[in-house]
TrEMBL record:
The chain crosses the membrane at residues 21-43, 49-73, 93-115, 146-167. GO terms for cellular component: membrane. Keywords: Membrane, Transmembrane, Transmembrane helix. One of its GO terms (molecular function) is phosphorelay sensor kinase activity. It comes from the Bacteria. This is Signal transduction histidine kinase internal region domain-containing protein. Residues 184-263 form the Signal transduction histidine kinase internal region domain.
Length: 376
């Protein structure tokens, strides 16, 4: 267990996100700014060497501060506070690491005073003197006082860093949890579509058994292929339009066996839309509704058109089925409601689902945000 913790400790130290690196760069700049503002009263425009020494020292101390916060504090917090169930001993471990980092920083800061290059920045002895006066106030700090001053300052700075990092990690964890909940809800809605799909598919095969057993066997084979695609797609809450069309084609092949000349399909999909995402089985659900309530009840030939087009920052998927007088059977809107709920979980207010019944056809269309670079 101890070995695993050590491995995890170093693993967290070696890998970090782009956002974290940017935040650390900001902390580096903030440290330097604080140090320079703190040292401005000691600058002398007639002695540029002092200013250069203070700036060099601020760069050195800022580097040490960032290294300590990254390799000691961040790894400790991720290992004991963010990845495990919180226990009292974890708090004391983190407090110990905060104290250790502050002590190291204090020793480094005092040790820098001993280097010849930085002796001009030594503030253990300070003299306040008026320009035209020979007298002034002399303040001298002994070693214990310096240790206490520097330790308190760095402990406070590490506390600020830790609070900012903890708050950021909490927001990231909450966002990740919300995403998991959304995916789970989308998956739950997708599961509700499966019985509807199975009912229609088995009805198609049932109609063939008494008419053409060879064709029924072939349809069962096609159905098994459809199930394979269905199960693979079912593992994810979202699919690309290309994957949705691949699954839907299998279903249409089965339905064409039952409906024969009554089912005709026209497809017009822009080439740059095949990789756009939508809830899994959405297109199949729309096709099922179109066939069940529009094409199947009619004795005349029917037509289903599928169109996908780009519209500025959105793309539109439209499915229309022909209807004849009395052919559009009333049905539940469960499928459409499930699709709409899934889309709302994915895009919030950035989506739109509408349907319209005209004299000779029934149309449903989805308007979704267009996502660049969806190819993987």
């Amino acid at each position: 267990m101890q070995t695993d913790n050590i491995k995890a400790f170093w693993r967290y130290s070696l890998y970090s996100s782009k956002g974290y690196k940017i935040a650390q760069a900001g902390a580096f700049i903030a440290f330097i700014s604080f140090f320079i503002l703190y040292a401005i009263p000691f600058f002398d425009i007639n002695k540029p060497l002092i200013a250069l020494a203070f700036i060099s020292r601020s760069l050195l101390e800022a580097t040490v501060f960032i290294l300590l916060s990254h390799f000691i504090l961040r790894s400790t917090f991720k290992l004991f506070l963010l990845q495990q169930q919180f226990r009292a001993r974890h708090f004391f471990i983190c407090l110990f690491m905060l104290t250790l980092s502050s002590l190291i920083m204090t020793v480094v800061s005092i040790g820098i005073n001993l280097l010849p290059l930085f002796q001009l920045t030594d503030m253990s002895s300070i003299v306040y003197q008026e320009v035209e006066s020979t007298q002034g106030l002399h303040i001298s700090f002994n070693l214990p006082t310096l240790l206490l001053m520097f330790f308190s300052m760095y402990f406070f700075m590490f506390i600020v860093w830790s609070s900012a990092y903890g708050f950021s990690a909490m927001l990231k964890a909450r966002k990740h949890l919300q995403q998991q909940v959304q995916e789970a809800r989308i998956q739950q809605l997708t599961n509700q579509l499966s019985p509807h799909f199975l009912f229609n598919a088995f009805n198609s095969i049932r109609a063939l058994i008494y008419e053409d057993q060879d064709k029924a066997a072939q349809t069962v084979t096609e159905l098994s292929e459809l199930f394979r695609f269905h199960l693979q797609a079912h593992l994810r809450p979202t699919s690309s339009l290309a994957e949705e069309w691949q699954i839907s084609q299998k279903y249409l092949e089965i339905e064409k066996v039952r409906l024969e000349q009554r089912l005709n399909i026209q497809v017009h999909i822009a080439s740059d839309l095949w990789q756009q995402k939508l809830p899994t089985l959405s297109l199949l659900t729309l096709l099922e509704n179109a066939i069940k309530h529009g094409i199947s009840p009619s004795s005349e030939a029917g037509l289903i058109t599928i169109e996908a087009s780009r519209q500025d920052k959105h793309w539109r998927l439209e499915l229309c089925n022909s209807v004849t007088t009395g052919s559009q059977q009333p049905g539940t809107t469960t499928g459409l409601k499930n699709i709409k709920k899934s889309l709302q979980l994915m895009y919030g207010e950035g989506m739109n689902l509408c349907y319209e019944k005209q004299k000779e056809r029934f149309c449903v269309w989805l308007e979704l945000p267009y996502v660049q670079n969806t190819d993987r």
